[in-house]
Every structure is written in structure tokens, then in C-alpha cells.
Amino acid sequence: MAYKRTLLQTSIAVQSVISIHYFDYMSNFSFSGERHDFWELLCVDKGEVNVMAGDCQHTLKRGSIIFHQPNEFHNVLANGKSAPSLVVIAFDCHSPCMEHFKRKILTVQDTESALLAQIIIEARHAFSGRLDNPYQEELIRSLGSPVFGAEQLIRSYLEELLIHLYRRYFANPLPVPTQITGRPRLGHPSEAYNRVIRYMEEHINQQLTIEVLCRSTLVSRSQLQKLFQEAHGCGVIEFFTLMKIDTAKQMIRDNQLNFTQISDRLGYTSIHYFSRQFKKITHMTPSEYASSIRSLSDKDH
User: Fold this and answer.
1) For residue 154, which phi and psi values (nearest 5 degrees)?
2) Helix orientation angle between 210-217 and 221-232, rounded to the nearest 10 degrees
3) What's the fold here for domain 191-298?
4) What is the domain partition of the chain in residue ranges?
5) CA distances from 172 to 8, 98, 166, 169 (A)
6) What is the 3-state secondary structure (H, E, C) of 170-191?
7) Do 262 and 273 form a contact (C-beta atoms < 8 A)?
8) Dihedral angle computed from the Cα positions of residues 197, 201, 206 and 211, in that order, rounded to the nearest 10 degrees
9) Is domain 14-170 classified as CATH 3.40.50.360?
10) Of 177, 212, 237, 251, which sits 20 to 30 A from 292 (CA to CA)?
């Protein structure tokens, strides 16, 4: 048979990345602004921010994503009430379809959120230094043995993110298959998983046990552990502790409660136990974390 090769077409090609960040900001953070000759996307993972794009100001809530075109002035300002968490990625892309993204504010769905999460994960594999430093001007490749394919996956995930958004907002919608095999089911957890997560969120101020979780969510012990091992690589109680510390970080950035009050709100038996748990997970004491976040907020003032 005379086989013929098909050269695959490229609709969106990312040439390079300039920065990849995941920021946790204080509720009073402000960045005075900048302009540069490459694209930048900003997605709100938590909280709310005000953003200037050119001469227009926008309020972005959780799940909102904005694209700043090359040489467009932009800034970021927290609203003083909610401490925001943001994904910011700067990149070069000269594909003609990027014209559609100019000055657009879109909303990410589960698939796009999962792709952003994968970009952050691969960036931690590929590059050294902190991803929460907004003043880092160069990505430094990790020394030693790099994780195979990390940089290529960053480009692939970013291109896939842009394709998904383009299809949903600017092209005729395509039918979505009911099941996609051979890939992690990112963004599509089971109802049992969602039920457990909701219960933990509603009882974040308590000390939960596996027995209580099983009884309250109607999930067996073995299924419960399997759900969280597959989704997060840890046990359900360990994940609940991570949720508590993540909530504590949010409270610290909100700057409304002191450490003792935060410890009490989250159901810890003492401020000392809370501080030990916080340091074990973040490698910083609550005071050190607060100082670190404030130092980032103060640099631009």
C-alpha cells in the first residue's frame, strides 16, 4: 500500500514563555502597572481584583481570565476585602487568531482550570525559584536532572488552553464526547468526591476523622482513601489538613484576624499546635508567611 503522510496543521503556536506565576496576595495588594511586548493572561483562582487594561478598568471574580495584548498598559489592585490568588502567565504567540483575545475577559471552565493547574505543576518541575515572586524577570531552569518533557508540556498545555477558549468563545462549538479515555479526568471528579469536599468545606472549623467523614457522606472507608489517593496522592485526613492550612493562609492575607483567632476559627486545640502544623506544611511559621506576603505587597508602593 502507498501510505501518505499528513502534516498536522498548527492553529496556535506558543513560541516562548516569559513568566509563570501563582500569587497569593494580601487583601490590600496593589501593582502600579506596566506594559511589555508580549501577551499576558491573568486568571483569578480565588477572591476578586480590579484590573486596568489600557484605559478601561474591570472587576474580575473567581474564574475570570483576561488577556493583555502586547504593549497594553495593565495593573492589578485588590479590593481591600478579599485576598486574591492569581495565575499569571506571560508568553509570545504570533498566531493570527490571537487577535480575538485582545481586551477580552472570559470565564474558565473545569477543563481550562485543570490546564492552568497543570502549567503551574510543570513550571515547578522545570524552573527553580518561587512562582509567587511578581518581580522575577527570568525563568531559571532547574539544576540537576530535569523532569522529562516539563517545558514541552507547558507549551502544549498553554496552546491547549488557548484552543479550548477560542473554540468556546470565537468559533462554532464542537460536540463534546461524553467520555474521553486515556486521560486523567481532571475537572470531572465523581459525585462522591464532590460530596466529601463540600462536607469538609462546611466543617473546616472542626477536627474530622475518617469515621465521621464516611458516616456523614455515605462513602466507604476504602473508597474514600482511593478517591483522594487518585486525585491528590494523599489520604483524606492529610488533604483536610492541607485545606485547613490553605484557609489559614487566606485568613492571614485577609488581615482581619490575629493568629490566635484564626487558630480558634479552624478548630485547633491551641495556637502552638496550629503553628506547628502551619510550619510543617508551608515551611514557614504563620508570622514568617505574613511577613513574606506583606513584603511582596510593599515592594510596589
Assistant:
1) -60, -50
2) 100
3) Arc Repressor Mutant, subunit A (1.10.10)
4) 14-170, 191-298
5) 21, 17, 9, 8
6) HCCCCCCCCCCCCCCCCCCCCH
7) no
8) -10
9) no
10) 237
* Cα–Cα distance for residue pair 203/211, rounded to 1 Å: 14
Grid-cell match 460536540, residue found: 175
Measured CA to CA, the distance from residue 31 to residue 297 in angstroms comes to 8
Mean pLDDT, range 248-270, rounded to an integer: 93
pLDDT digits (tens, 9 = 90+) for 163-199: 999 999 998 644 444 333 333 333 445 788 888 999 9
Strand partners, 74: 34, 53
Q: Cell 518561587, residue?
A: 130
The three three-digit cell numbers of residue 278, written as one number? 502551619
Q: What is the distance of C-alpha 24 from the center of its chain?
A: 10
Q: Which three cell numbers stand for residue 248?
A: 489559614
Tens digit of each residue's pLDDT (9 = 90 or more) over 66-96: 999 999 999 999 888 888 999 999 999 999 9
Buried b (16+ CB within 10 A) or exposed e, 9-22: eeebebeebbbbbb
| Planar angle of CA 76, 77, 83, nearest 5 degrees | 110
C-alpha 86/C-alpha 44 separation (Å) is 5
